[in-house]
Amino acid sequence: MAETGELHVEDEVLDPHAPADVDPLARMHLLADVTHGFANVLRMSAFRRERAARHALRWRWSATSESGRRWMRSRLALHSPGHAAALTHLVGTGADASG
């Protein structure tokens, strides 16, 4: 994102009624909210980091909007199907996990 300046993934299905999907400033606020809790995790030892990252991701998933969950899923899918599968394994596939 920092390299391209693109706030959306090419094949991401956006909701025209969600401010974070149509307003660039609202989108940046959403992304800051989604990612801010992970900086502390990166400072931890490798042993604690994995468990803390899982906990932070589960909490962030439950606390964010549908736009945030869709963004998280699409960005992980860009890295690999394995990343998307790990997210599904962690947060489930119910209505809250759709994206």
- Secondary-structure element order, as H and E? HHHHHH
Residue share in helix: 55-70%
Tertiary shape: globular
- Count of extended strands: 0
What oligomeric state is this?
single chain
| Average predicted confidence as pLDDT | 78
Structural class: mainly alpha
Proportion in β-strands: under 5%
- What is the rounded distance between the termini? 19 Å
Rg over CA atoms: 14 Å
Count of individual helical segments: 6
Low-confidence stretches: 95-99
Notes on the protein architecture:
- The structure is a single chain.
- The protein has 99 residues and is mostly helical.
- It contains six helices and no strands.
- Helix 5 packs antiparallel against helix 6.
- The longest helix has 18 residues, at 46-63.
- The protein is globular.
- The two termini are 19 Å apart.
Short description, anyone?
The chain is mostly helical and 99 residues long. Helices cover 65% and strands 0% of the residues. Helix 5 runs antiparallel to helix 6 (81-91).
